[in-house]
Specification:
Elements lengths: L2 H12 L1 E11 L4 E13 L2 H10 L13 E10 L4 E16 L2 E8 L9 E8 L4 E7 L3 E11 L2 E10 L10 E11 L1
Antiparallel strand pairs: 1-2, 1-10, 2-3, 3-4, 4-5, 5-6, 6-7, 7-8, 8-9, 9-10
Length: 184
């Protein structure tokens, strides 16, 4: 199976209902918090994919049916009882491949950190079955990793850095999150 087929299979396995147990380490406050998230991932039609492109003022794509696109809805409850619910549409546009690793843009009609359309970068490693998404926000850069262990188990790692000055390395971590995601 080639990298593109594995990429599509990765997303086929991701469709469905999931439960996540996460631990967040807020390094700037020296605080640890646990949360539980219920989420649903469903594929979207070409019309929604076109709208995600338009919302992001992204160039039109010739074959929308071949681009992985999804609707994600989730409800999170922290151990403190705080609740967060959100829904968004996302689209993955591959630009190139290096040694079997796919790279491209990850578009959302609403981002997590900032409630607006957002274009981020993704990297998919088919050997590790890992999707790495890097989003540069106004104040932070979020690096989110999803590793598909098997069709019903994913491992999640989120590292958020304070956004460095242009040309400087990311080295100030403000948040680290770890999660185990199981398909219902």
């Amino acid at each position: 199976m080639d990298s593109v087929q594995q990429f599509h299979q990765f997303f086929e396995y991701c469709v469905g209902n999931w439960t996540t147990e996460r631990t967040y380490h807020y390094l700037t406050q020296q605080e640890v918090e646990r949360s539980r998230t219920q989420f649903v991932i469903n594929p979207v039609a070409s019309e929604i994919k076109a709208k995600v492109l338009s919302d992001n003022e992204y160039p039109a794509q010739s074959d929308l049916d071949q681009l992985p696109g999804f609707h994600l809805a989730f409800d999170t409850v922290s151990e403190k009882g705080e609740e967060v619910s959100q829904a968004l549409n996302m689209l993955f546009v591959t630009h190139h491949q290096e040694n079997g690793v796919l790279m491209g843009d990850y578009l959302r009609d609403r981002a997590y950190e900032e409630a607006k359309p957002m274009v981020a970068k993704f990297r998919f490693d088919p050997i590790q079955s890992e999707l790495l998404m890097t989003t540069t926000y106004t104040r932070v850069v979020a690096v989110d990793s999803i590793t598909l262990v098997n069709p019903t188990l994913r491992i999640r790692k989120i590292v958020t850095y304070r956004r460095p000055e242009s040309g400087q390395p990311m080295n100030e971590v403000v948040l680290v999150g770890f999660g185990v995601e199981q398909k219902a």
